[in-house]
Amino acid sequence: MAVKRSKGRWSGARESGRAQGGKKEAASQRKLQSSAEQRREGSKENGKKQKGAVQAGERRHPEPPLPKQHQAKPGDESRLSPRPQYKAPEYRGSGKLEDMVALVTGGDSGIGRAVAVLFAREGADVAIVYLSEADDAEETRRAVEDEGRRALLIPGDVTDSAFCQDAVEKTVKEFGKLDILVNNAAFQEHAESLEDITDEQLDRTFRTNIFGYFYMARAALPHLGEGASIINTGSVTGMEGSKALLDYSSTKGAIHAFTKSLAQNVVERGIRVNCVAPGPVWTPLNPADQDAEKVAKFGKSVAMKRPAQPEELAPSYVFLAAPSCASYITGEILPVLGGGESGG
Prior knowledge:
- Helix 3 links the parallel strand 2 and strand 3.
- The chain has ten helices and seven strands.
- With 344 residues, the protein is of the alpha/beta class.
- The chain has a single domain, classed as 3-Layer(aba) Sandwich (Rossmann fold), CATH 3.40.50.720.
- The protein is elongated and about 100 Å long.
- A seven-stranded parallel sheet has the order 3-2-1-4-5-6-7, with helices on both faces.
């Protein structure tokens, strides 16, 4: 019996020790909980203090609310407030496109202008195709020439296949060759419902955004050799859709499929085909489409809480165009979305 009592005493001690251990663990959990809650409260306070947009580069970029404004199509960059940032002063060229020749549609303003400038900084001559905005095109030409390279301005409508053929021929005649095609011209018009999209709007959107890409690529291909590339401008709307841009989103989805298909078609010729898919970018496209109230909030819905500036997109095009950077990359869609929708 003494043995049994002894076992009972040891058993009781073990149980008491386990109970104490449980209490100690519970206290430890409460301590961790308290610490975590304090951190969360601190994060909330920091969040309250920092309501502004994310600035992750060397210079600050404009953020909503932007000035309320609206323009007639196709839009004039010189009248935008604030002016889009396209010069990328912190970007240093290193000869990635030395003595190459590029043709950029929609090159007078927005993304196209910023791409033309950085292509020139990397050593390329640039042909700039634009619709009718002569003043904007002249500013782009001066910016390219300020980088020490030649610029050729070609006004016209990419919905016309004959014009696209002529634009390529003028580029080759002026510069002697063609190495890079950037399909970037675009048309968009918001509509609240499918019934609001007229036949005329549908035709214009598709002819500009996808027919024009086909026409330019078809005209350029005979002049593109090994190491050349085609870069198309897609959109986040082509990946995620947009309820008020039914026709535009459809064309951007088509551009993504066109990119992948053409890449497969020409890969054996040593020609690469890729696509940059931006989120909201501060260009004349949106102020020439949406009302002034919506323009003021443009870009606020993404995680960075602001639209991109054209100079923030342009390095992606340099990367995809440069054989030294992207010789093994083709058929890809490169999203540049500012973190995507924030949910806020």
